[in-house]
Amino acid sequence: MTTHCCEAMNSRVDVPCDRHADPFACPDTLVAFNAAFQEYGLIIHDGGTSSVTIGFCPWCGRRLPESQRDRWFDELERRGIDPGQDEVPPEFRDERWLASLPQE
Ligand SMILES: [Zn+2]
Ligand SMILES: [Zn+2]
Asked: Where is the stretch described as Disordered (predicted)?
């Protein structure tokens, strides 16, 4: 499990809930964390899957990790994978792909 910037964030991201398997359906979950992109979003509870990407934690004010979305697409392209058509390797579905990159 990913540890976030503070307790408040930990308790609002991916809240374990036995009534809602989908965090977007759970009113207790305020923040969606996309591990693959390292993006945090405030969930808009309108029944859909909309969220507003945030750059700072609303509780502790700390800067959140930089989005890796562009790099994600670059890395897949480098491997000749088109995420729109090909199957995305399992390590690209969460933050594991980042660990496999050479450290800068
Ligand atoms: Zn719930
Ligand atoms: Zn925080």
From this structure: 78-104
